[in-house]
Amino acid sequence: MKYCVNCGKEISEDSVYCPNCGAVQQEGMVAQTNTVVVTTATNMNCVAGLILSCLSIFFNLFGVIGIMGIIFSNKGIEECKQRNENGEVLGSIGKVIGICTTILFVLGLIFSVSILSWY
Ligand SMILES: [Zn+2]
């Protein structure tokens, strides 16, 4: 059995607060400080990759914007793994969109060339 550090009343082994006086128990305090709070930053390359890929849906200058989206997203995903940063999901989405717009651009290019060669 454990006793309250403040009032000395019997309390259960795992209680953080005393049910009698409400005082925070020492063990509970230790357990709380042992919990390491890790704040991670969002990787900017992942964000840039996603923005570029989204932009390439509407405006893909010579297919470059879509490819840049893939490059930035890839770089961001790698950095997320190395530095344990957030944004891997954003980078993955950016990469998928970038690949899609690049494929569409190439298909559009092939289509345009085949139309032109008809005449
Ligand atoms: Zn107490």
Could you characterize the architecture of this molecule?
There is one protein chain. The protein has 119 residues and is mainly alpha-helical. It folds into 2 domains: 2-34, no CATH class; 44-116, no CATH class. Helix content is 61%, strand content 3%. The protein contains 4 helices and 2 strands, in the order E-E-H-H-H-H. It has helices spanning 26-34, 44-58, 64-83, 88-116, and strands at 2-3, 10-11. The protein has a two-stranded antiparallel sheet. Helix 2 (44-58) packs antiparallel against helix 3 and helix 2 (44-58) packs parallel to helix 4 (88-116). The chain is rod-shaped, with a radius of gyration of 28 Å. It starts with a strand and ends with a helix. The site of zinc ion has 8 residues, from loops.
Short characterization:
The protein is mainly alpha-helical.
Features:
binds zinc ion
Number of helices: 4
Oligomer: single chain
How much helicity do the residues have? 55-70%
Q: How large is the share of residues in beta strands?
A: under 5%
Q: Tell me, rounded to a whole number, the average pLDDT.
A: 87
Low-pLDDT residue spans: none
Strand order of the largest sheet: 1-2
Biggest sheet layout: 2 strands, antiparallel
Distance between the termini: 93 Å
Number of strands: 2
Q: Which class best fits the helix and strand makeup?
A: mainly alpha
- Which molecules are bound besides the chains? zinc ion
